[in-house]
């Protein structure tokens, strides 16, 4: 039962805040105890060896599509596909990155064709050089000059040519990120 105190303004009496806090803290403590008990029960049933990260059992198969390398570029500054972005795609020859092709990202944020497919899909080190300075200038983005990012290198390796690799790239005027997808 909570205590009340008289109101000086003629309003109804209000429960004291400490009683409400005590009720809330009691509820949190009870929940934490139940959670700890559940974790303890799960730990008792857990195997002795720690679980390994999920691994794929083999190459990704998409409706008969052959293994390939594809990409997708998203402009996080404008919140849209990076339509018009120029990309230079190169392969490392042991000393330098040698240009394989240049392309302009289409309306969906992708290259029109896979970057590597069939006989061109070989193991090795690769680079996509994104010309983000030219891209933002062409979009008329009001950014400080000189630009913080100019040419953004996305470097990666193809190890297993039986797997499909998709590279989603997100970039803005001050940052970029990419990951391996499938």
Automatic annotation (TrEMBL):
GO terms for molecular function: hydrolase activity. Residues 1-43 form the signal peptide. Residues 69-181 form the Transthyretin/hydroxyisourate hydrolase domain. Keywords: Hydrolase, Signal. It holds the Pfam family Transthyretin. InterPro entries: TAT_signal, Transthyretin/HIU_hydrolase_d, Transthyretin/HIU_hydrolase_sf. PANTHER family: 5-HYDROXYISOURATE HYDROLASE (PTHR10395:SF7), URICASE AND TRANSTHYRETIN-RELATED (PTHR10395). This is Hydroxyisourate hydrolase. It comes from Comamonas terrae.
């Amino acid at each position: 039962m909570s205590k009340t105190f008289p109101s000086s303004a003629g309003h109804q009496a209000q429960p004291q805040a400490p009683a409400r806090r005590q009720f809330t803290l009691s509820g949190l403590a009870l929940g934490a105890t139940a959670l700890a008990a559940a974790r303890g029960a799960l730990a008792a049933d857990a195997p002795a060896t720690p679980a390994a990260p999920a691994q794929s059992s083999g190459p990704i198969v998409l409706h008969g599509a052959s293994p390939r390398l594809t990409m997708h570029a998203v402009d996080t500054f404008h919140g849209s596909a990076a339509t018009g972005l120029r990309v230079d795609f190169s392969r490392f020859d042991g000393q330098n990155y040698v240009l394989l092709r240049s392309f302009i990202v289409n309306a969906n944020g992708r290259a029109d064709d896979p970057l590597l497919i069939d006989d061109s899909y070989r193991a090795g080190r690769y680079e996509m050089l994104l010309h983000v300075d030219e891209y933002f200038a062409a979009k008329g983005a009001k950014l400080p000059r000189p630009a913080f990012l100019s040419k953004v290198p996305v470097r990666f390796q193809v190890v297993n040519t039986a797997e499909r690799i998709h590279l989603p790239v997100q970039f803005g005027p001050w940052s970029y990120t990419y990951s391996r997808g499938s």
